[in-house]
Amino acid sequence: MNAAASEVQGGVPDRLATLRANVARLFADRLTLIRNTAGELTFELGAEQLLGVAARLRDSPEFQFDMLMDVCGVDYLEFGRAEWKTFQATTSGFSRGVARTGASSEDISGVVATIPPPGRRYAVVYHLLSVTLNQRLRLRVFCPDDAQPMVDSLCGVWASANWFEREAFDLFGVMFRGHPDLRRLLTDYGFIGHPFRKDFPISGHVEVRYDPEKRRVVYQPVTIEPRVLVPKVIRRDNRYDPQLTNAPVDRGGAAAAAAVPANPVAPDAAKGGAPGAAPKPAPVKP
Question: Model-level pTM greater than 0.85?
Fold first, then answer.
């Protein structure tokens, strides 16, 4: 049984239990456990606690998280408000989100999910790894200001945070206070907006093309007309019904064989000639 299955069924592996106990003992007033089914421990903390907690997770002998594996931005604007339709077509577009209920995104027991309250739209998620102790930990920090999302940079704690934070800034618009070189990483120089935000248009704002008259690449407002995305509908196919899986497949051969007589008569035999005999040559006029 893997770690995820053990946690789902209530039995947390010994390594996770030890890590969870150490976190509860040292960060009881700063970290809040988030329920998940990934088989790893995830904690949420306030943005003002990020630098202190990160440094202690790296330096404490109980943790020794010497590697920052990834930094991800998250936009919860449409989280839990749509469901992806598969078995029925729709002309209103589709989303991969799952309609959840609950007071929070992890507790699904009560209230229908709504637009996130102020200070709960943008989050930054940190994935930590301890090579020495072979354990992982995930931290989630929400940006207090939705209009100008910002958290402290962890470049001074883990050098690998440099490009990870640049990526989160480029795609989500989250700024990192104290970053030594916070600029775009993936999009073009003239790109407008942050493409991974949920309110960013799918077609974007500008497009790039080569102008043969100016003999250079130019930017211009996007000319793609907005369109409704229609999902690839998964329809029921009776060819794969259980009662038909072992049945022979009729591709038209049986019907063609039934149309042919059992003992076909040659054309010469019908005219009185010997079956299979060569046709008589036509008389040649002088």
Answer: no
